[in-house]
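HOLO CASE FILE
Compound: aspartic acid
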Amino acid sequence: MKILKFGGTSVGSAQRMKDVVKLIVSEETKIVVLSAMSGTTNSLVEISDYFYHKNTAGALEHINILEKKYYDVASELVNTQKYTTKANEIIKERFTYIRSFSTAVFTVFEEKAILAQGELLSTLLFQLYLQELGVDSVLLPALDFMRIDKNSEPDTAFIAENLAKQLAENPNHQLYITQGYICRNFYGEIDNLQRGGSDYTASLIGAAANADEIQIWTDIDGMHDNDPRYVEGTHPVPFLHFEEAAELAYFGAKILHPTCILPAKLNNIPVRLLNTMQPDAHGTLISMQSKKNSVQAVAAKDGITAIKIKSGRMLLAYGFLRKVFEVFESYQTAIDMITTSEVGVSVTIDNTKNLDEILNELKKLGTVTVDADLVIICVVGDIPGDNVGMTAIAVDALKQIPIRMISYGGSNYNISFLVKSADKVKALNALSNNLFNMSERQK
Ligand code: ASP
Ligand code: MG
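Model generated. Tokens follow.
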């Protein structure tokens, strides 16, 4: 069994949906996970925002625009009168439901119910189109088997058990379709796996069904060795280790949601990143294999704030770092990078929601300095502690750029540099030139 996930742009129009069909019709058994059509979840967020602000007219205006888009898609997608009628019924039903919130109290529960409509619409219409084509497929409702627990973590036992049940109730089919992103929570309410969570759905399903492979289809030919938005002539990386892919996804590569790697890694299921526009391209294969002693890619994570805490009390003391970390923990703020010296520690965060409170607490521990507007430049590859010279090449690339922090040795897969946002593009290009030896890029 294979799991194939198609993202928002891959199902972003009637034509793109038709292209997807060509990629999924084969003898192999597969579960196809679909996102909402691109732009839909953003619109639903906006509609919810109007409902929160009790601006019903504003909400209705946006609902009408979105609904019209779906009628247009449907008319292009299906051909016969019978299926056009069915498609229009589906759309009408979904949008009547969305409109029904204009008279209700609006809280986060209602918002989650609205946000789920994007994936429901895309899968219902897609399934209908398959029916019209006469392609045998079964729509498995994600709300019947995807579940998160009290801590908003996937309930893997529940998912495995209930997915198996759904599959057993619908035996002898090659093609199953389901929704990405949406799930139920511990209380049975409609919930989701956070924005971009369809990749996560695919990998959770892959793990639950013990799939042979998880394929993430987007519209780029795999994970690139640098950010194509800022560096010219980047190349897809053919093979990545799970750890390398996780670092890259977390530190900026937009193609894959970082949460997607863990379930695949734990169950040793290869993840293949493929391009719907170029289906024969190799893409990137993420697995347990790594290319020894080589840097695979560079990525950047924006919007970083560094905090330095200096204290005489740190000298020869134990427990100081715990006190520092506890402050961040109590404000539920994740730390990305850490560097220490005997008298101080620097950490970086990207969530500054509680920065003022955090700083107030830290000031009890030492002298605090804050630098905003930084980026983490992350060099990813197989970089074992006994390598000779790999760090030097990276540092040498950045010799013209002021470096605020360096983190090396946290894992065998990453060297991170913290630089000013203004130096990001220069740093990314310099690293590509030195590491991948392609100086012609600079021309
Ligand atoms: N539709 C959801 C979003 O836009 C989930 C996804 O596309 O992965 O965030
Ligand atoms: Mg995505």
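CASE NOTES: The first helix runs from residue 14 to 24. The two ends are 46 Å apart (CA to CA).
CLOSED: yes
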